[in-house]
Design brief:
The chain is an alpha+beta fold. The protein contains 15 helices and 9 strands. It has 2 domains: 179 residues, no CATH class; 199 residues, no CATH class.
């Protein structure tokens, strides 16, 4: 306890060096927390699940996937042809529709990217929307009910809604970007809860399909260029990996999908393949940026503690004369660094967790189709561990120097 008192007293006495070292640690732990949260989320979405496993069906030889909508009826059933075949627990289809409210002056703010799908599948098949708090679930369910009643309804993420300058209840007209010539009148009936879908939107698949089907009547019987390419993805949910393998075999051996051919893979594998384009960025974050931050924390603490030790050589010599052992001095210096680093790491990680998750709604760092990332709950212990560990490592040499101070040499310099 006496050593602990001395540690705290020394930290207070050298308050300028303590504040500077703490500030540097706080910033570097912040960087590590942000990087590790992104990497932790990506690891989670690319990890295989053992139960209620999701699979994604896409065109085999082309990106982006473009399949005829006639595939939807059988793919959502897992290409089952007999009573003995495996059928999915649940399924949904995705078609991608991009539109702008100003076709002559298109910008990011007036552009809306939407999934065309069955509204009722939002709560059963979309990640994170099946486990909402009761109040958010009730609000989203009400918006879904409105979309079921009104095919013109759309649910829009909060960031997209703000960028468009609209609010719930407003009507908008979207001029088709990928579906050239197919313009949609939409009514905003609700928003997604703050988080993963802030920049997304959903429209009713029947509304888009009806617009594609109506195209020939207004264009001398000629189909829209995307009429046979309007189905982009099919998602299915199966009980386990064995069921997935059987469904994948059913799809690959089915005669229904020859032109174009399709492939079935787990959702984690599909997302992993999609993230290949970001492989170098993710590698750099994992193996360069995060270790560099940790090393910098150690160096900063080593310099700060080293300066303090050099200034306190007379004091350390007096402590030895008074009976302090080298081991006690070593523990005291290491303890000062550990207290400083742990406290700074704790402040950094807890403040970052609260600020990002409760006030900002996520880290605005879009990778692939993930617009933002929340701070992982593990950051609440990452911060103290990183700050304390790096500080302890960086203070080893200064602490060793402190306990090796020679009394005769110090006092010989006193005139």
């Amino acid at each position: 306890m006496k050593l602990l008192g001395l540690m705290l007293k020394n930290i207070r006495r050298n308050w300028i060096a303590s504040i500077l070292a703490s500030a540097a640690t706080i910033m570097l732990v912040l960087m590590v927390t942000l990087v590790w949260s992104v990497l932790s989320f990506l690891d989670q979405v690319t990890a295989e699940k053992s139960k209620d496993l999701k699979a994604i069906i896409t065109e085999r030889w082309q990106i982006p996937s473009q399949m005829p909508y006639s595939y939807a009826a059988t793919l959502t059933e897992g290409a089952a042809r007999t009573d003995d075949d495996i059928r999915p627990i649940d399924s949904m289809t995705w078609s991608f529709y991009g539109g702008t409210t100003d076709i002559k002056n298109r910008t990011l703010d007036n552009t809306l990217f939407a999934f065309a799908m069955e509204p009722q599948k939002l709560r059963t098949m979309m990640d994170d929307l099946d486990s909402l708090p009761p109040d958010q679930a009730a609000e989203l369910d009400a918006a879904i009910a409105k979309m079921d009643e009104n095919r013109l309804g759309t649910i829009v993420g909060l960031d997209r809604l703000e960028a468009l300058g609209k609010r719930v209840g407003d009507r908008i007209k979207l001029f088709g970007i990928n579906y050239r010539g197919i313009d949609l009148e939409l009514e905003i009936v609700g928003t997604f809860p703050r988080g993963r879908y802030d920049k997304s939107a959903v429209i009713h698949r029947d509304y888009l399909n009806a617009a594609v089907d109506a195209w020939p009547r207004e264009h001398n019987g000629e189909e829209h260029p995307l009429a046979q390419k309007s189905l982009n993805l099919v998602w299915i949910k199966v009980p386990d990996s064995d069921a997935f393998q059987k469904v994948a075999d059913q799809i690959s051996s089915s005669p229904y999908y020859s032109s174009p051919a399709v492939k079935c893979e787990t959702a984690s594998s599909g997302i992993g393949s999609f993230l290949d384009a970001y492989r170098d960025l993710i590698w750099g974050m994992r193996y360069l940026l995060a270790p560099a931050c940790l090393a910098t924390v150690a160096v900063v603490m080593s310099i700060a503690i080293g300066i303090g030790v050099r200034k306190r050589q007379m004091e350390l010599a007096v402590m030895k004369v008074l009976g302090f052992r080298p081991r006690q001095i070593l523990i005291m210096v290491l303890g000062e660094s550990l207290l400083l680093g742990t406290a700074a790491g704790l402040i950094s990680s807890w403040a970052t967790w609260y600020l990002v998750n409760n006030l900002l709604g996520g880290i605005p760092f879009p990778i692939a189709f993930f617009p933002s990332f929340m701070i992982d709950d593990g950051a609440l212990w990452w911060g103290p561990a990183v700050g304390g560990g790096a500080a302890l490592l960086g203070s080893v040499w200064p602490a060793w120097s402190a306990c090796r101070v020679k009394v005769s040499e110090v006092f010989s310099k006193v005139t």
